[in-house]
Amino acid sequence: MSPAYESGLRNSSLLHSDSFPFSAKLLRSQIIQGVNSDPGRVLMNFRPELRRPIEMQSDVRKLVSSRRRLATSLLFAILYLLQAVPAHAQEGTDTPPLCGDSEPVAQPGDDGTAAATPASAEREATLRTLPRNFLQDQKDLWLFPVKLAQGHHWLPTALIVGGTAALIATDPKTMPHFRQTNAFSGFNSFFSGNTGAGIIAAVPATFYVISLLRKNSRDQSSALLAGEAVADDAVLMVVMKSITRRQRPDEIAVNGNYSDTFFQSHKSFLGTGSSFPSGHAMMSFSVATVFARRYRQHRWVPYVAYGLASVISFSRVTTSAHFPSDVFLGAALGFAIARFDVLRQ
């Protein structure tokens, strides 16, 4: 810095004026001219009013830097715990399950906080306990109206009933489009009713056989719970179909009337040939829910399980076996039975 510049800086009337304590323009010009040559001397020659913003900026940078270091340390600590806890919790006496770790991961509770769910808290099933579990399921299932009368589960029930009612009202307009189009001919040739039923039965059966060969009790229990959910679905499905006796869409002419369909089917005494609700949707979503919940530590399992269940359910509409409302209610009931009846803790 030149002597003439230093003398001018010290004797500047603007810098020592009480009527102009701070000038952003002056601060910027002084930094540009002198900070590269001797920043210490420039800062010392500023009045306290001009030094204060620079000093505050330096303090803020130090504070932010310290907080970043603290946040980074906490992040690494959390990641270490997330890796260490599952490794410590793994069992060493049983064969690893088909879908991975045998211990379920922590799930958030009702208050939003993470709550650890040990394996002993989950409901398990064996061939010996399966009949007792099924009877308990049926008791809880048919006593559900009592819980509603006591003020429980009103919101999900209202959403399911409201969604089903809305779809029933729109079925006469949406179903003719599926009857008159050939866009799903290739899809329907593969996902027929027999194909969907075969997939629903084959998944838990194959899982159970492989788990027997591998001697894994948790996988055996998962397969039995899926079968238990399907049995629960079958009882409710037969009762509802025998009461509603709704015609299937393929029983109606392509350009016919799709409005008056309830209490019109007389195919069988038990109503197994009627449309409301979809049994394929119920059972596919029950099986999907069992595997998605019990192996939810693997992110791909819920996507594959619910994706396959959705495809099977959608095929029931494209093949004109069910109305959209039948499929929606069936999927909702299948999920609810598996999640809150079969898999209760």
Structure description:
The protein contains 13 helices and 2 strands. It has 345 residues and is an all-alpha fold. It has 2 domains: 3-89; 130-342, Up-down Bundle (Vanadium-containing Chloroperoxidase, domain 1), CATH 1.20.144. It has a two-stranded antiparallel ribbon with strand order 1-2. Strand 1 (107-108) and strand 2 (114-115) form a beta hairpin. Helix 5 (130-142) packs parallel to helix 10, helix 7 (154-180) runs antiparallel to helix 13 and helix 11 runs antiparallel to helix 12. It starts with a helix and ends with a helix.
Query: Which oligomerization state do the chains in this entry correspond to?
Result: single chain
What does the overall shape look like? Answer: globular
How would you state the average pLDDT, rounded? 75
- CATH fold call of the largest domain: Vanadium-containing Chloroperoxidase, domain 1
Largest sheet: 2 strands, antiparallel
* Count of the domains: 2
Low-confidence region ranges = 12-22, 74-94, 101-120
CATH architecture of the largest domain: Up-down Bundle
Number of helices: 13
Briefly note the structural class of the backbone.
mainly alpha
Instruction: Give the SSE order as H and E letters.
Output: HHHHEEHHHHHHHHH
- Rounded to an integer in angstroms, the radius of gyration calculated over CA atoms is 34 Å
Across the major sheet, the strand order is 1-2
Question: Terminal Cα separation, in Å?
Answer: 78 Å
The portion of residues forming beta strands comes to under 5%
CATH class of the largest domain: Mainly Alpha
What's the total number of strands? Answer: 2
Query: What proportion of the residues is helical, as a percent range?
Result: 55-70%
